[in-house]
């Protein structure tokens, strides 16, 4: 009987997770994902980059333009940086929420912790697959670890 209850519970969880992306509210100004936040005190991506010249970790709000989203379920997004620099990876605290694909091109404010970290080749490949890149692109680009800015966000607010 306990096995039957456990199996039923597992099925219920899997069904709710599989429908998670379908229930995500479309990205419109004022919509929040995760913790409810406002844009007061948000710094720009450029200011964040300059912060790392003197501090190892930044806690607070960052405003930027979304350029990519995980195509599988919206489990991460990236924020645009100036020039040819790699975008900033934004993941969500404990994968407690996801963002919709229509958030690309929107200006958002994220609140959380940012740091410069090294991303292994394995994780680079994983993210590239989730972005929908081909195996050939992945094999050509992902050959060594890289340092980049990573954010773990408690909440996301769509500004415009």
Automatic annotation (TrEMBL):
Protein name: DUF4920 domain-containing protein
Alphabetical list of Pfam families matching this protein: DUF4920
UniProt key word Signal: yes
Keyword terms of this UniProt record: Signal
Signal peptide: 1-20
């Amino acid at each position: 009987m306990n096995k039957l209850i456990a199996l039923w519970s597992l099925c219920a969880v899997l069904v709710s997770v599989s429908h998670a992306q379908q229930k995500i509210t479309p990205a419109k100004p004022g919509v929040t994902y995760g913790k409810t936040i406002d844009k007061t005190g948000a710094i720009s991506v450029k200011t964040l980059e300059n912060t790392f010249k003197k501090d190892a970790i930044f806690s607070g709000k960052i405003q930027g333009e979304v350029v990519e989203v995980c195509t599988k379920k919206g489990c991460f997004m990236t924020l645009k940086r100036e020039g040819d620099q790699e975008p900033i990876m934004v993941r969500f605290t404990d994968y407690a929420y996801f963002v919709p694909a229509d958030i690309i091109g929107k200006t958002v404010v994220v609140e959380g912790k940012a740091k410069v970290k090294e991303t292994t080749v394995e994780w680079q490949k994983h993210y590239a697959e989730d972005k929908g890149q081909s195996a050939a692109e992945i094999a050509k680009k992902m050959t060594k670890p890289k340092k980049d800015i990573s954010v773990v966000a408690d909440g996301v607010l769509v500004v415009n």
